[in-house]
Design a protein that fits this description.
- By secondary structure, this protein is α/β, with parallel strands linked by helices.
- It has one domain: Vaccinia Virus protein VP39 (Rossmann fold).
- The protein is 34% helix and 18% strand.
- It has 9 helices and 7 strands; from the N terminus they run αααβαβαβαβαβαβαβ.
- It has a 7-stranded mixed β-sheet, sandwiched between helices.
- The longest helix has 20 residues.
- It is globular and about 50 Å long.
Length: 240
């Protein structure tokens, strides 16, 4: 983990660029994706994630019953939940569910997001869960997710760690089936290029573009750090 996340340990304004031993899209990407598409992911669910999902599903069903035109927005790998809070404020008609595997991160206070600072959005919930399980449960429950965000995931830049990236993982078929629009951001363009190529195997298409940060609040602390270091951030938007 240390090797992969080293660029995220530096002070604001001194964030390192991704270092990888790949020269382009991984040569085994298509093979790995095809394997996961042909072999269902049957790993047993972890009890804590099942419980977390059940709690969120109760909230989602109650929200949908009360708001027939409401939207569900899923913010995966939400970290401290800054992005979940911003998305909730930007989409007052929606219920935003932020998911992260770390209880420490989701329970941290986020500077600037208190009522004293003019923040009033209440239409979001943060939950600790393993996304490898949570994704499958969301897909099975058929949540009507309109937008599915994956912002600055762990890049796992070493070639040997392809299957630790989301597009190389066993849950890729289920995760990409969630949401009308799938939005990923990364400071490593190659990560998004690989995800885009993998998505073509399940007929998901879209565009890769540079994140326009002028005058906009960073969605995550990592995004703010990359911007302060002068790094280019990229967004991949995929549509069903």
């Amino acid at each position: 983990m240390k090797d992969n996340m080293a660029e995220q340990q530096d002070p604001l304004g001194d964030s390192k660029s991704i270092i990888t031993n790949q020269t382009g899209i991984h040569e085994k990407l298509n093979e790995v994706v095809a394997k996961h598409l042909s072999h269902p992911f049957k790993k047993p669910y972890q009890p804590h994630t099942q419980q977390a999902f059940q709690e969120m599903d109760t909230l989602v069903q109650a929200f949908l019953q009360a708001n027939s035109a409401g939207e569900i927005i899923l913010d995966a790998c939400c970290g401290v939940g800054q992005s979940s809070r911003i998305l909730a404020q930007q989409n007052p008609q929606a219920l935003v569910i932020g998911v992260d595997k770390s209880a420490h991160r989701i329970n941290r206070n986020v500077e600037g997001f208190s009522q004293e600072n003019g923040y009033h959005a209440q239409n979001y919930h943060l939950v600790r869960a393993d996304l490898n399980d949570f994704y499958r449960l969301v897909k099975a429950a058929n949540w009507p997710v309109t937008k599915h965000y994956i912002l600055y995931p762990n890049p796992w830049p070493k070639s040997k760690h392809l299957q630790r990236r989301w597009h190389g993982s066993a849950v890729f078929p289920q995760m990409t089936g969630i949401g009308d629009t799938l939005i990923l951001r990364s400071n490593w363009r190659l990560y998004l290029e690989e995800f885009q190529q993998a998505a073509k195997q399940i007929a998901l298409h879209g565009e890769l573009s540079q994140v326009n940060v002028a005058g906009e609040q960073a969605l995550t602390p990592f995004e703010a750090k990359y911007q302060a270091s002068g790094q280019v951030c990229w967004q991949l938007t995929l549509y069903k």
